Amino acid sequence: MRIASADVVVTSPGRNFVTLKVVTDDGLVGLGDATLNGRELAVASYLQDHIVPLLKGRDAHRIEDTWQFLYRSAYWRRGPVTMSAIAAVDVALWDLKAKAAGMPLYQLLGGASRTGITAYGHASGRDTDELFDSIRHHLELGFRAIRVQTAVPGITTLYGVPTTPANPGGRHDDYEPAARGALPAEEDWDTRAYLRHIPTVFEAVRAEFGPELPLLHDGHHRMTPIQAARLGKALEPYDLFWLEDCTPVESQEALRLVRQHTTTPLAIGEVLNTVWDYQTLIGEQLIDYVRSSVTHAGGITAMRKLLDFAAQHQVKSGIHGPTDISPVGMAAALHLDLAVHNFGIQEYMPHSPLTDEVFHTSYRFTDGYLHPGEKPGLGVDLDETAAARFPYQAAYLPFNRLHDGTVHDW
Ligand code: EZ4
Ligand code: CO
């Protein structure tokens, strides 16, 4: 099974996606997601200009060899652009191998370890009423675990909380942070206001919804270790499933201090892209959940190894799944989720109807559980005619300034 051609498809059905399409000499098509929110064209160029010329004529079955070749021959290792590009090739080759075998990909990864993949949804609100409505809406949709983000008095625009409902009259539960336009949006941040407010929100949510519902929260890299320790401690009475990205993740050692002070479970890693980024975090058992995505962390091949390392230290998966992971990347995550033993939870935010016009998926969400479906390969088809109707549009993630004007982590 030789690679006959490889193409990069950039499309923007509501938001930007970069997809690698690999075709074999016997006509099989494999897809890989290479979407890096706000920096899409860098990965498209890495693939188009530097990787596609290396793929033609290669044996598509040699996945491990291709991964090692792309990683080591680049010389310049790691980083989100490189690892997203390698991931796209890796996932496309797994898609091809599974199609050639006539099996859904999870079968090649060892078969199903569970019947369904527990997914968490995203509730948010500008006040308690709106937040409670959003939680109720997610419960009606079937979600069995819910991430809670709310506005904070003293902060004007906050991550995870749309300032207006997604559709007029619609619900307040889609929070896509990257806005189209020539410049990134400026948001504001005040750590003291945040630390005062968030525990009161979780107290109110537990009082309204009871003790059982698993609740998650994302700190989005904004606290110092001692501030994160304080928040983790303050949230202990409300029994969170996890507190995510409590400190900027460049410093793995920072988690030692957080860990010494709180039993709130910690999740980290959506911006990490290799197993090396987790050596201290996992080796010293400083976290409970790994947040890397298949899309940004080198694909199925690398994520399996990362999760096997995590398993030795009782750390579980919590694969990143916002809408900036394409349906191809989401499907890859679901096959892995179904197969690995140390699955924890999967993030799930359904894509928009426009996105669904371009990517046709076989995965399903039923009664709170995701499943990748039984089609051979990933189970995702790309409609290139539909994709061509949605040309790339520049979009940026926002950034933060403190009230005195200092740039802060977003
Ligand atoms: O801000 O994917 O847990 N999820 C997140 C995401 C990230 C976006 C950035 O592109 O933190 O919403
Ligand atoms: Co996050």
Task: Report what the structure shows.
There is one protein chain. The chain has about 400 residues and is α/β, with parallel strands linked by helices. It has helices spanning about 40-55, 65-75, 80-100, 105-110, 130-140, 190-210, 225-235, 255-260, 280-285, 300-310, 325-340, 355-360, 385-390, and strands at about 5-10, 15-25, 30-35, 115-125, 145-150, 180, 185-190, 215-220, 240-245, 265-270, 290, 315-320, 345, 360, 365, 370, 380, 395, 400, 405-410. A hairpin with a 4-residue loop joins strand 19 (about 400) and strand 20 (about 405-410). The longest helix has 22 residues, at about 80-100. The radius of gyration is 21 Å and the shape is globular. Bound molecules: (2S,3R,4R)-2,3,4,5-tetrahydroxy-N-oxo-pentanamide and cobalt (II) ion. (2S,3R,4R)-2,3,4,5-tetrahydroxy-N-oxo-pentanamide binds near residues 324 and 397.
Salient structural properties:
single chain, alpha/beta, 20 strands, binds cobalt (II) ion, binds (2S,3R,4R)-2,3,4,5-tetrahydroxy-N-oxo-pentanamide, 3-stranded antiparallel beta sheet, 410 residues
Write out the distinct hetero groups bound to the structure: (2S,3R,4R)-2,3,4,5-tetrahydroxy-N-oxo-pentanamide, cobalt (II) ion
Q: Count of DSSP E strands?
A: 20
Strand arrangement in the largest pleated sheet: 4-5-8-9-10-11-12-13
- Give the N-to-C terminal Cα separation: 45 Å
Largest sheet: 8 strands, parallel, barrel
% residues in beta strands = 15-25%
Report the radius of gyration as a whole number of Å.
Answer: 21 Å
Low-confidence stretches: 167-172
Number of helices: 13
How much helicity do the residues have?
A: 25-40%
Shape: globular
Quote the average pLDDT.
Answer: 96
Structural class: alpha/beta
